[in-house]
Amino acid sequence: MTRNFRLSRIALLAAGIALIVSLAAPGVEAQQKVQVEFWHGLSQPEGGILEKVVSDFNASQGKYQVNATFKGSYPETMVAAIAAFRAGNAPQIVQMFEVGTAIMMAAKGAVKPVYELMKEAGVPFDPKAYVSAVRAYYSTSDGRMLSMPFNSSTPITWYNKDAFKKAGLDSEKPPKTWEETREAAKKIKAANAAACGYTMAWPTWTQFENFSAIHNVPLATKANGLDGLDAELKVNSPLHVKHLQTLMDMHKEGSFKYGGRDGAGNSLFTSGECAIIHASSGMRARVVSEAKFNWGVTMLPYYKGTPGAPKNSIIGGASFWVMTSPRRTPEEYKAVAEFFGYLARPEVDAKWHMDTGYVPITLAGFALASGQGYYIKNPGTDLAFRQLTLTEPTANSRGLRLGNMPEIRVVMQEEMEKAFQGQQTAKQALDSTVQRGNTILRNFERTNRQ
Amino acid sequence: MRRRVIFPNKVLPYLLLAPQLAITLVFFFWPAVQAIYWSVLIQDPFGLRTEFVWLENFRTILTDPLYLGSIQVTVIFSLAVAALAMGFALLFAVMADMKIRGVRAYRTLLMWPYAVAPAVAASLWLFIFHPSIGIIGRKLNDMGILWDYKLNGTQALLLVILASAWKQVSYNFLFFLAGLQAIPKSLVEAASMDAGPARRFRSIIFPLLSPTTFFLLVVNMVYAFFDTFGVIHALTGGGPAKATETLIYKVYTDGVVNIDLGSSSAQSVILMVVVITLTALQFRFIERKVHY
Description:
The complex is a heterodimer of chains A (450) and B (292). By secondary structure, chain A is α/β, with parallel strands linked by helices. Chain A has two domains: 34-153 and 316-375, D-Maltodextrin-Binding Protein, domain 2 (3-Layer(aba) Sandwich); 155-313 and 403-447, Periplasmic binding protein-like II (D-Maltodextrin-Binding Protein, domain 2, 3-Layer(aba) Sandwich), CATH 3.40.190.10. The radius of gyration of chain A is 25 Å and the shape is globular. In chain A, helix 15 crosses helix 16. In chain A, strands 1, 2, 3, 4, 5 and 10 form a six-stranded mixed sheet that branches. Chain A has a four-stranded mixed sheet with strand order 7-8-6-9. Chain A is built from 20 helices and ten strands. Chain B has 292 residues and is mainly α. Chain B has a single domain (65-289), classed as MetI-like (MetI-like fold). Chain B contains 13 helices and two strands, in the order H-E-E-H-H-H-H-H-H-H-H-H-H-H-H. A two-stranded antiparallel ribbon of chain B has the order 1-2. In chain B, strand 1 and strand 2 (50-52) form a beta hairpin. In chain B, helix 2 crosses helix 13, helix 3 (65-96) crosses helix 10 and helix 7 packs antiparallel against helix 10. The longest helix of chain B is centred in the first third of the chain and has 32 residues, at 65-96. Chain B is globular, with a radius of gyration of 23 Å. Chain B starts with 11 loop residues before the first helix and ends in a 7-residue tail after the last helix. The mean pLDDT of chain B is 89. Chains A and B meet through helix 3, helix 19 and helix 20 of A and helix 12 of B.
């Protein structure tokens, strides 16, 4: 070998070793911290803010490291977690949307209940620190909390103040009833103040689930499923039929534009195309960064003359579930418990609320934000919280817990879409929803009989 | 070097086949066997409770009007995609077989759509036809045509048929072009003495293309049944109201979204049987008409 050749081979070998060492070194360091995998389903900007909360926790102590991974939308995250569990590889924490609660609660053996986790790890945890609407949703009927609430939202009305002014409406007096909402949407469309008057995101959540709670009518028997697996849907009541008919009429007259399933309708508002939207309070971060117009918020509307209306709305959003695995160690559970204890701190709760528009889920968090003058400096940011706590929850507004709710939502959306296309009447759509939905509920009951 | 008829090494052939066989076993046979096993069970999503139910899943599906509706959508969809993809491909192949200026450029450009991934192709068509942000979609609405494939089922089906056929035209084009070029020029020249181009095509060229046509028919049918999942998922998600939910898409919806694993497995078993039968029928009856 020539000298140059030998030198270059030595240099190459040295570079290779250096590369391997540099790659392994952080791995060696990470071995010393207990690793926790946390799968979430929040896209930007909320996902980025959540990951900041996680990295703040990691920076605040040196024993545990939580690794947050975005796994896709909420339904995709749920499927990923189920597949991982079946492969024996479940993450320690998974963020599960609220309608997956029944599925997770029935999965005894796959999840570790939060009250058990916190007790075994010795981390102080007080369920009563949480807002009662939030606590009841994720606890058993005797008050034991099964999952860790974190990002809870509720739908509110967002409206485009500039479009209101242009249509000759008072931008400081947004519509309170459905009758007023329809009138406003018609005026906006007629004055061409916006391309469309009204739309919604998460159609089933805003138009059926929260609608039922606010109007104090049942979505399903057994307190919307909270009291038993043998619940039956009641979403074809006269009031529900009247409401779907109103939406169909609004669609025909052009004052309402259907934006699509799940969160697809959000962009119709932020782009300025639709002037009024019923969407999650958690859309705030997006509205602040994307809307190029003056906007305001108000509570969801109700039909004039409905007895007892408006009642409190119910939560949406997600909570964190702890998953078991054949390889789980007590240290991993302790790490999760410490992380949850961190999340329950009022300052963490308040900061998350103020950054995103999700509601403060602890009473102390709300008090902290209030004390900082946040609600005075940012009018309307306490609206979601006030709507959630508007009244003491009734049997119809404690929340809902229906098995295979994601599938039932798809059914509802399909029947709504057929109705909007003029292929069936409102009554047919809702009767079909009840029939198909009840089949799904009975199937769930059968596979989860205790 | 003397040519040997018998390959001496006993082990080497198996070693060479082993990787491909391993992949086929792991990615085809194992899931298929598991699907058959799961199709006779009812289980909760996490697999914590399973119940053996014989053929109940099959019975539930075959009496479900939604499943029968999905069969209808699939038949319309497959026939339309096969007809469009093969028809246009044949047209382009005949045109690209002529000696005209730039024919090489045309051939190259006609082959490019095949390289586009299904989801990407769907996104491209979405950006053209979306009612709010699509170029043509917006123009249609401005002209007064109510174009909204997110609500109108017929428009949604039309769009996925177009997008799926578009992707497959290149593949068919390649094979048709090769088939056309394999026809002896002397035959065509001799026929041109007696017959015009249409008659020549009908009596000489198309029959001689029949092996290619038959092969492409099988491939296009399998494509329309299975490989169009990506396009449908990215464009319409099976909606609106199940208007674009083909059999393969229903397997996905029931298995992954609704996590009804028993029903989904039974559906995929039925789908497997259907496609095997169709392919076997095609080989038995249509191959008789193929002139090799």
